[in-house]
Amino acid sequence: MSLLLLGRWQPAERDRWLRLLQAALPNEQWLLAPPSSAAEAAEVEAAIVANPEPGSLAGLPNLRLIQSLWAGVERLLQDGSLPVNVPLARMVDPAMNEAMTQTALWAVLSLQRGFFDLQAQQLRGEWLAPQQPRASEWRVLVLGQGELGGRVAQSLAALGYSVSGWSRRPAQVEGVLALHGDMGLAEGLAQADVIINLLPLTPQTSRFFDAARFAAMKAGASLVNLARGAHVVEADLLAALEQGRLRRAVLDVFEHEPLPTGHAFWRHAKVTVLPHCAAQTDPRSAAAVVKGNIQALRAGASLQHLVERQQGY
Ligand code: NAP
Ligand code: GLV
Fold this sequence. Notes:
- By secondary structure, this protein is of the alpha/beta class.
- The protein contains 11 helices and 12 strands.
- The site of glyoxylic acid (GLV) has 5 residues, from loops.
């Protein structure tokens, strides 16, 4: 049997993944392109994938596991030919969790202490010390209390911020006020100085940040989107920034990536653009995660981080 490794990678990146996966799973046969014959297709036992081309996981009769190397699996689930009865696991990588926490802390600290504004001041040659609010005077709302959102919320709370976390089901995260449901969301949006988005992209959360949601936010709040571009109605965000309802947006993800040349976000004084780098899967630690699931598959043990396809995450 063989393991199929597929992704939209540059050759050097693909080779790095292969090298680390081969080191973690030294006795495997690897297939690096969709099978070219029925015999080759019948050999594939598990597919390890980074958003491969739609259709590339169809026609694999003995496939028993799809292991995503990405945390978000919406692109895989949008592929109508994805085998329905094969377990789909998503990536939960300790190094990705650490990186996401760092990005969120940087954004909140920079907003609270006015550091983004100081960058603009420097360009104007202005010497003007801003006010210095305390962390405890700032409320941060983290949308999504899963692997990433829960850790981000806990780390912010540990730094002294007042933190609320919103999720589908009530979550228990140390030091974090748990919110859920429409009422919880309304309360959270109305009170937060910073809203961090770490929701998965599903039919329920697509276009989540629209004009109505911006209107429900506390005046002068800032949005930090670290999840997916399709969570935000970009025209509504631009309007909310122009009207002064929102103070700033820190955006790592966009409706179209790379962010098109000439897009209003690039040069907007109230927008900070990151190139979808808030938290990347680290092949060094992710290879061990893949190894764990392949070994569990062979041993008939429980697979980790399975996606509930009905829920979309
Ligand atoms: P996760 O562990 O599956 O957590 C998802 C959280 O969202 C859970 O708390 C879940 O609530 C909540 N949720 C889902 N649907 C909801 C809804 N309709 N209403 C309220 N809450 C809802 O996911 P994760 O690993 O933290 O990752 C989150 C997302 O981050 C990924 O899907 C991906 O899009 C994004 N991401 C971005 C980057 C980047 O570099 N920018 C990197 C990695 C991941 P329950 O707990 O009640 O189920
Ligand atoms: C990155 O955005 C991921 O979902 O892993």
